[in-house]
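For the sake of transparency, this paper describes our internal protein records without simplification. The record that follows is passed on verbatim for readers who wish to inspect the format:
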Amino acid sequence: MYASREDIGYDFGDDSKVGSKPIKPNPNIDGGWAWMIVLSSFLVHILIMGSQMALGILNMEWLEEFNQSRGLTAWVSSLSMGITLIVGPFIGLFISMCGCRTTAIIGGILNALGWILSAYASNVHYLFLTFGVTAGIGSGMVYLPAVVMVGQYFQNRRALAQGLSTTGTGFGAFLMTALLKYLCTEFGWRNAMFIQGAISLNLCVCGALMRPLSPKELREKYVVGNDSEENRAKALSQSTETIKSNGVLGEEPEKKEEAANEEVLGSVQHIEIGGKSGSGRSMYGLRLFKTVSQLTVTVRRGFALWYSSYFGAASLFTNRVFVAFIIWALFAYSSFVIPFIHLPEIVKQYKLSRQDNVFPLTSIIAIVHIFGKVILGIISDLPCISTWNVFLMANFTLVTCILTLPLMQTYIGLAVVCALIGFSSGYFSLMPVVTEDLVGTKHLANAYGIIICANGISALFGPPFAGWIYDITQKYDFSFYIAGLLYMVGIIFLLIQPCIQKKQSRHKSTEEAQV
């Protein structure tokens, strides 16, 4: 199979320079403040992804309150989940301009506002706007920075760090399911959403913990663990090979852009000096003009990086393996989301509510999901194990469980399948690692934004499609079968494209050797 990032495909380079002199590793890379970033990301996953995994509780409340079809009501949950992920590429633009910390704090406020406004919903369509769109966009503005920051702070323990931080989804699903069930029972679903909105304001605290790395610290990241000459040579070889095969995104345009920006700021400073020398002139207008100019420069620089990543000559879409990864993401996420949204209804249909009340099936998925992420992360960080292979094996296990779940009509059978779904879906912690291996750290925010956008499209249409199929057939069986088959198509793309890429690389090397 595929044993390294070179075998998977090609990347876009990390702009790392490995000099002949040893550089002292930054203590915050793979340690120090990096673990605070993991804690911040962990809490973000609890408050955002965990809450979304517990929406099955609210979905049943909405069905009783508004008397709408299952397909229409499911759109509320799927809009929230889908938009959280779909806005990824646009959040990448915010990150390029404002940084992860500012983006996450604004997102936390927006997410809390969405929950609070949803408490006053008079119909399902009102929830589409407040909970689906407002809370969804806010969630996306916090979620992407949380993932990107972990990737920036870790080099040698990336899979483990991502695994630990994303276990918050499992903890959150377990805790939020119990919390929302209790709040809905004691206070009603409207007050429950109001309280949840107040809790969501803690996302702003999580965002404040996301201290950005300086460019110097980012460069030092790539010398961690490269103490030997052999490792330095390997790192330099990878960097050189990357530039030869792909080029660096917008390197020349970036230099021109920086020159233009310096010219703008220089002219502002010249005006400011003139303003100081001129008697009787107000400096307030000049300071305002300088602030606006600096903001304009920041926006232009961020937009240029964002635009070149998606539409430039060496855009992310020229990486064929990455494109195959996007196609996989379009089909994968709905297979994981559908059980969370519709399992409470399936349990009710099979008359298993008594057993499920003792230990809910969604809680089984959530708890095992925690161990799955940590264990798969530890396995992937082993020197002799390929992250890509672990990722593929987990995908095969998950799609098998999705196709098997409709055949189980006893609580024990459903519990076993749900446990396997929870463990195998732990591969979500490997997605940022695989993405970074494909495109490099510099373009991780934009690339991962595209991947979660594709996941968002999958989450957006998956639950309503399952509800629509149920409205027609009065069964959920066909929903799982169709979702599983589409998921299998995505896995096939992941298998085929790297083989083609590897074959083309070998053919090109042979031709160069002959010349």
